[in-house]
Amino acid sequence: xxxxxxxxxxxxxxxxxxxxxxxxxxxxxxxxxxxxxxxxxxxxxxxxxxxxxxxxxxxxxxxxxxxxxxxxxxxxxxxxxxxxxxxxxxxxxxxxxxxxxxxxxxxxxxxxxxxxxxxxxxxxxxxxxxxxxxxxxxxxxxxxxxxxxxxxxxxxxxxxxxxxxxxxxxxxxxxxx
Length: 177
Known about the structure:
Helices cover 20% and strands 38% of the residues. By secondary structure, it is α+β, with helices and mostly antiparallel strands. It folds into two domains: 2-34; 52-176, Immunoglobulin-like. The strands form two sheets. A five-stranded mixed β-sheet has the order 2-8-7-4-5, with no helix packed on it. The protein is elongated and about 80 Å long. The termini are far apart. The model is unreliable at 16-50 (pLDDT under 50).
């Protein structure tokens, strides 16, 4: 009786493992298909797979007073708290993996962020095609007065293979007083 129960237990465990491994490989294949896309742009491009794409749609800085969201600011004061709002949109195929949008303070509009100061970040949840998410972060700048750029960089950690890695960012010019 014990041998029979042991044999049944082993068969059940093997069955569960096979089912699990099959489902994992199926999910990986589905993920790859959705990450690379399954539809095409035009007849001329038939057969070319689309990839996900996160785009920073817009980026603005506002006073911390909620009534001021209609008036984005370009002149900021040192050691004052502001609200940074950013809208990230998923174009092309669905973006099944979330990503992090990072904000940098830069002396130029160049998107090479290696020498820039990160001033905040937000997590963007997975998005369907043409869906977007607006995220908010509070910032306080302490740098010397001058002309700067705030750069928002979606998928800053390169978690998602995209069709166009060059459109992940948006910058705004500010004067820090």
